[in-house]
Amino acid sequence: MTFPQIDPVLVSLGPLQIHWYGVMYMIGFAGGWWLAKTRADRPGSGWTRQQVSDLLFYAALGVILGGRVGYVLFYGFDRFLDNPLWLFQIWTGGMSFHGGALGVLFAFWLFARRTGKRYFQVADFAVPVVPIGLGAGRFGNFINGELWGRASDMPWAMVFPSDPMGVPRHPSQLYEFFLEGVVLFLVLWIYSAKPRPAGSVTGLFGVGYGLSRILVEFFREPDAHIGYLAGGWLTMGMLLSLPMVLVGAAMVVWAYRHDQRRAAA
Predict the structure, then answer these.
(1) In terms of Cα–Cα distance, which of 184, 160, 187, 188 is closest to 172?
(2) What's the pTM?
């Protein structure tokens, strides 16, 4: 299957260039803001449109700062030790979802303190729209022809232009777009449409994303400078996602048990 030749630069006006990847980030944030605003407009939601906009700002900082720090620590710590200033050279590329997730969780905590809301009141409200950004980002990866999959002979395997080996590969970015974006969004949006025990929506996100990422890692080519961690199959992405599944499952169990104890009291 032929890789669609999409110019990573959407618009070029002299020295000004607008890249598809940046547009995907904007689509993710805008889509998340619109959906969150829609729920905030419901009677008795406990949220205002201004609070939604403020939360988006906090989350954006968490994604960018946490994603960069996470990438440096998880995937390039040796390079950071050689050149600590590389941490601030964002234009060279390198963002980690897991670092971004930690950054967003910290941003939720800051926002909750500022507004007087409970932590899971903030997190459970926000995480159902996160897959919009995840899906948009993965589609941006596909347009850029980066983070491709392992070699494959499947009919839909593609030869990515930037692949030095020039072999057909799984379009794993699209697998992640479907699982982390479409499927995870539908599960969380439908589940959170009704009142749920505090923390259960956030926990379900951890389980859903972690399982999706672990599954896709079997088809995704590991980072060249890291490779497989063990057995020719274990990757850093799997290792970082497993705690999300375990902690998320524990959170869901805790949320329902805590809710039952409160109801019985």
Answers:
(1) 160
(2) 0.89
